Automatic annotation (TrEMBL):
Amino acids binding ATP: G111, S112, V113, G114, K115, T116, S117
Keywords per UniProt: ATP-binding, Cell cycle, Cell division, Cell shape, Cell wall biogenesis/degradation, Cytoplasm, Ligase, Nucleotide-binding, Peptidoglycan synthesis
The enzyme's E.C. designation: 6.3.2.10
Protein name (Swiss-Prot/TrEMBL): UDP-N-acetylmuramoyl-tripeptide--D-alanyl-D-alanine ligase
Gene: murF
One GO molecular-function entry: ATP binding
Amino acid sequence: MEILKCKEIVKAVDGKLLSGSLEAEFSNITTDSRVVKNGDFFIPLVGEKFDGHDYILSSFEKGAAGCLTHRDMSGVDGKIVIKVEDTLAALRKLAAYYRQKFDIPFVGITGSVGKTSTKDMVYSVLSQKYNVLRTQGNFNNEIGVPLTVFNLESYHEAAVVEMGMSGLGEISRLTSIVRPDIAIITNIGLSHIEKLGSRQNILRAKMEILEGLKDNGLVILNGDDNLLSGLKGLLKHRTVFYGMEDGLDYQAYNISSQGEMGTSFEITIGYKDYKVHVPAPGIHNMHNALAAIAVGVELNIPVEDIIKGIGEFLPGKMRLNIIDLNGIKIINDAYNASPQSMEVAINVLKDVANSNNRTIAILGDMLELGDISVKAHRDIGKYAAMKEVSYIFTVGKKSKDILEGAIEAGMEKDRVLHFEDNAEAGKFLIDFVKPGDVLVVKGSRGMKMEEIVNLLTTEL
């Protein structure tokens, strides 16, 4: 982070200085009192189970040089204390102010599925030419995005920022911070439908990213998504579409899956044909690559370098990571789950396996699906049965409907089994799996399905 003066902070957050000098300087901002370092500026936030204001004094004891507060309090000798109306709103205001210091291209990414993989693919492409800042881990919410922005340094030449949401208005607030030059929407799925009620409302929420897009900015949309493709000709910004359908601006053809080795496809750019290899399993990664290609072309990266960048892509943790373990392959996709990403995981399971392998899907609950939960889980069971998965094992409460769907689709009852928790499932699998098996482990974040992966990698 570049240096911020106290007077800049006071002005940016519409605050009132209670103590300290306006000329004081800060080079790091944190919202976590546990990691405060000497000289930090601490912003206390209020959560469901905690209030960061309770840790202001302890943060000063650890060396913090200043803080915000929306509680009534006195100034502290030798420390900067700035009073604001709301510390979370102030965090956003300060991040928006700091972002405006950087005249570099920003890429904002949202969507129901594939945000993180697309972000990492775009990063890999842009890194061929630029020094790039990108969102780390799951820092894609109203706290994570500001903290990502504060990581900008003078040497950064581009930024790729992921934006997640759980309801209407959240992406609107995030895009007002990021002010992207390029906005990508990967797809409109069923994630968070419990709160939003319909895919149309999810589309509305994702479209909020355009509110912060610069007037001369570019919109990049998945043309294979029926809701996004319907926006053709309706947006005020320049818009390009990618996918497999005819007539798209970035169309993949001659698509070939090489299983664990990845996916290859061809694309025509500027009347010239190119072959692209994505070193990650699953046809879905082709869509992520197409979005990254569109960004690379927009930012004038030579096509050969774009293709090189895609070839250097590495998937994030717990996102279809393949673990080879004593002749057993475990596909760890435990980070999160939705109906769309469940189907993707099952497809990858079948792509990685061959006809001699037993395929085993260990599936947990999909959360936040509201009224469609039962049908969505049953549909996944039917899909797995249709794809001829050898065994389906489920964990949780809602996932029992996956088994019901599989049996309804004709899967034998001795090939499906339900477990109440991860420990029970893992204990069973230790004795059940054998060399040659290919497993996929997937469930919503709250299910912590990585516990099964961890147990298997420890015991097998």
